TrEMBL record:
Sample GO molecular function, one term: 5-oxoprolinase (ATP-hydrolyzing) activity
Documented EC number(s): 3.5.2.9
Protein name (Swiss-Prot/TrEMBL): 5-oxoprolinase subunit A
Pfam families tied to this protein: LamB_YcsF
Catalytic activity of the protein: 5-oxo-L-proline + ATP + 2 H2O = L-glutamate + ADP + phosphate + H(+)
Species annotation: Filibacter tadaridae
Keyword Nucleotide-binding recorded: yes
Lineage summary: Bacteria, Bacillati, Bacillota, Bacilli, Bacillales
The family this protein is said to belong to: Belongs to the LamB/PxpA family.
HAMAP family in the record: PxpA
Nucleotide-binding keyword on record: yes
């Protein structure tokens, strides 16, 4: 039987602004990537998200991003590897504080948005992020784009890594995600999304926008919590995974 984790980016509300339907989504996913205040989230939102995840038996991970709330962390910034290291350590520490008060543990770390995509291609940034995670705890799982520089860096340093694929994004022939600047970056049809997910998990392949099949490893499937159809996707994808004899469980399980 195939086994895969179903994760979602959560805790991305800020102050009086509410984003996503995390109370409902947490009933269907197995891992939650909690925003740590740089690209989204605030202390109260972090605390509430941690509590909701614990109540739903969902494993918790840090979701560190670039310090760009206005751009939701999706705009690239020119940063040094040292700055990347410092940002990641800082944000993991913020989430760890709330986990400690709840007597809960952190399962993983998954960079967000532009930081994630930059580290997928930039070996030095990837190494800095992996070192930050390893320095805090070698037991943490580093989540990165399947086959990317980030997962390679994690494996080199001795971290357990999870190769991530996306339910709601299209791919390029080099294995990277289609830029959000393009109109065909997002998948909004549930059937298309499920077909892509099942193929990635069972066949290790995804069809790129160029019509070329790309090899991928699928340890975890991401659903973006801020997506317009995030809840529908989470419900439908989990249902179809089970119907196809694919076990859905957290990375650490």
């Amino acid at each position: 039987m195939f086994r895969v984790d179903l994760n979602c980016d959560l805790g991305e509300s800020f102050g009086r602004y509410t984003l996503g339907e995390q109370k409902e989504i947490l009933k269907y996913v197995t891992s939650a990537n909690v925003a740590c205040g740089f690209h989204a989230g605030d202390p109260s939102v972090m605390r509430e998200t941690v509590k909701l995840a614990i109540d739903n038996n969902v494993k918790i991970g840090a979701h560190p991003g670039l310090p760009d709330i206005n751009g939701f962390g999706r705009r690239e910034m020119k940063i040094t590897p040292q700055e990347a290291y410092d940002m990641v350590v800082y944000q993991i520490g913020a989430l760890q504080g709330f986990l400690t008060t709840c007597n809960a543990s952190m399962q993983h770390v998954k960079p967000h948005g532009a930081l994630y995509n930059m580290a997928a291609k930039d070996e030095k940034l990837a190494e800095a992020i992996a070192q930050a995670v390893y320095g805090i705890s070698p037991k943490l799982v580093l989540v990165g784009l399947a086959g990317s520089e980030l997962t390679k860096a994690g494996e080199r340093i001795g971290l357990r890594t999870a190769h991530e694929v996306f339910a709601d994004r299209t791919y390029q022939e080099d294995g990277t995600l289609t830029s959000r600047a393009q109109t065909d970056a997002m998948i909004i049809d549930k059937e298309q999304s499920v077909a892509q997910v099942i193929k990635m998990v069972t066949k290790g392949k995804v069809m790129s926008q160029q019509g070329v099949e790309v090899s991928v490893k699928a340890d975890s499937i991401c659903i973006h919590g801020d997506g317009e159809h995030a809840l529908d996707f989470a419900i439908y994808i989990k249902e179809k995974l089970v119907q196809n004899n694919i076990m859905v469980s957290a990375i650490s399980e």
